[in-house]
Amino acid sequence: MRLSPGRRSGSVAGQVFVLQVAIVVLLAAGALLALVLQSRHDIDREARNRSVSVAQTFAKSLGLREALKMPDPSAVLQPLAEETRKAAGVDFIVVMDTRGIRYSHPQPDRIGERFVGTIEPSLDGRVHTESVQGPLGKEIQAIVPVTSSDGDVVALVSAGLTVKSVTGIADEQLPVILPSIAGGLALATVGTALISRRLRRQTHGLGTQEMTRMYEHHDAVLHAVREGVLITDGEGRLLLANDEAGRLLDLPDDAEGRPVDEVGMDRRMADLLLSGRIATDEVLEAGDRLLVVNQRPTHPGGRPQGSAVTIRDSTEMQLLSSRAETARKRLKLLYDAGGDIGTTLDVVRTAEELADVAVPRFADFVTVDLADPVVNGDEPGPGADMRRTAVNGIRSDHPLYPLGALIDFLPSTPQARGYGTGAVELVPDLRDAPGWHAQDPRRTSEIVAYGIHSLIAAPLKARGVVLGVVNFWRWQKPEPFDEDDLSLAEELVGRAAVAMDNARRYTREHHLAVTLQRSLLPRDLPEQSAVDVAHFYQPAQSGVGGDWFDVIPLPGSRVALVVGDVVGHGLHAAATMGRLRTAVHNFSSLDLPPDELLARLDDLVQRMDQEGDSAAPDGGVLGATCLYAVYDPVSQNCTMARAGHMPPLVVAPDGTTTISELPAGPPLGLGGMPFETMELRLAEGSQLVLYTDGLVEERSRDIAEGLEKLRTALSHPGRDPDASRRAVLEALLPSQPSDDIALLIARTRTLGTDRVAQWDVPFDPSEVGAMRSRAAAQLEEWGLEELVFSTELILSELITNAIRYGAAPVHLRLLRDRTLTCEVWDSSSTAPHLRYAAGMDEGGRGLFLVAQISERWGTRYTPEGKVIWAEQALPADGRVLP
After folding, report:
1. What is the C-alpha separation between 503 and 498, in angstroms, rounded?
2. Of 855, 858, 866, 799, which is closest to residue 834 (Cα–Cα)?
3. Which tens digit of pLDDT belongs to each residue from 275-325?
4. Between 20 and 30 A from 358 (CA), which of 434, 487, 558, 715?
5. Which of 186, 285, 298 is nearest to 231 (CA)?
6. How many Å apart are CA 294 and CA 278, to the nearest integer?
7. Which residues form the GAF domain (predicted)?
8. Contact 256/248 with Cβ under 8 angstroms?
């Protein structure tokens, strides 16, 4: 069958049509392939972007860093990751440490295993995306770093989709694309327009560049945080500013896209943004705000390098921190003041410590003015002149009143007002203080010209008494003192005032005790010929004790040497010392031997304890020690006894020094044990050294070491007592003695045979006359003719009584010293008694005559009996001193 020409021509047309159809089909197939490939590419990119977005959002989520620090991070991160994964529409969110060990995974059994993927770029701080064969199959995943506040990578977060999910999404798009292709075969232009419109609907009218930019911005900015975020490009334009940044920097609404230096922000902030340099927690002032800025370089939209900036408002926190720091410093100052002020019971030193503590932490200069009586420990009176007791400052060339100045403040000055009312006075501006200027116009002008501009005058008030005024001066800091400073000054001075008043009270008691003790100690040692004496006494720095010494002349040219120590310090100890010293004087007048004298002294101390008259303030048992020695220059014998006291030292004429082995005996007041006596024969020129424990005992050494140093200092021949005293004090005297020190050095002398006459008296009354004649002849030889008659009367009575009432043998001895002493010795212990005879009595007048003729008379007992003695004053022209 042959085609008609029309058919053939249609065929051509058909062929053309077929060709056109083929071309259209080919174009449609190519377009279909291109659309499918483009769709899959877009979906793949969208999957990658979604993975990056989800991973970065989770990496910056609140609580993530705290969870990483927990002992078991998976317990918190696994449920959080799964919940986020389901909400974000991704197949997995994996949190891992920097070694790639998982903390979370959709398959819990994978937790703790190593992550499948490349983590090195993310460990360097970059975002990395890749396709890998993972536990869920072929996966598209993004790995982002989790950084600490200082920028270090502390963990990694990975999020992504499986290829199966991505392919499923692409397949879901084919039913939409195929009808469009079918329509394109009918009308390509219409189909193309429909596809374009559909794409525009799906992308909300945005192109690919705009969508990429949107994702980058959302990745960089978290609008939910209370931090300002800025992004700039390399040309200095502001690409992004979130709401918080606009509020903190007062940016206009159209700031984005404009140059940074044209949006009206603070110049320092603009300079920082334009510099592009790295900034970490840099503090900038922007108006009335204090901002903490962090800046890091970035590449927004692939453009030249820009910066990402975060801003925090720390104004309120800085204010609170500043107040807290100020409060801490003030509490530290008060704490230090409690430990540094009042370390000694010295008024001046306490004032200096107060000035030292306050400079420079509170004031630039501090002056302490005390009422003049307070310095001496007395009560301050109204209107008392002020003594500048302490001055301290950061410079020494200030024009303030100098140390030691006596100042009479006018009533108009803040110092006088504070002293009078007890209230703290604040002068914010010294230039505008006419009352203060009136005190000393020239000096006050110099102070203002020097730069001192503010003053706080705080009275030292303790126990209702104002002791003085502390002046705090400000020079270096431009701000004046304020009310907070006023409170601190009041608290600081209040604490110091208690220590000051304690020091004042102690000073007063110390002065009273020193005065009392010095009044009770011997002012001038009595004249005697038995020893040459050097002595020294120094009270303790912390308080007067009860140390004492004494030199007591005894009949027969003898001398008693006494050193004692009452335990304790203060008025009680000094008063007790005075009572004991008086008792020793009274007992020595009875001419008791040393052991018996100490026994009676021990009884007295026990009685004082029983009567509650203790030296201890709490009424405790009184403690005291004593050493009593009697030296006879005729026999050169020294008899000693001690009650718990330090042993004496004996220095021979050749310098050999020994510590006496005198038995110690119990301290006074214990009772129940006898005291032992030791007798030494001392060569002429020997030195007997008595002392208290304050000389040899010290915290830095024990008593044995102190005794050895004392022995070494004394071991030199040919010294007189004064030289020995100086050597001892140079070697042993502490700079600040903690106990009283008493030292008594006695160099022995002898009463030569030319001044001593003695005879044995026959036990016969008829021999009395012969003995009178011998005595008269001896007195004429000594040139004491004026005393012959009175001496004969005395000897007649004394010898007669010894023969009549005593026992043989009887001895007579005359001693020519500072007085003429007549001594009659016998073996009886019966002592005669003075009585007044009646007019008709035949006897009883002898001792009365002796008492009338002599200056003193008395009886002393010896181991062999007794001695009755009488002393007469030498005539002025017959006095022969040794």
Report:
1. 9
2. 858
3. 888 888 787 777 777 788 888 888 755 566 788 888 887 766 655 555 666
4. 434
5. 298
6. 7
7. 336-510
8. no
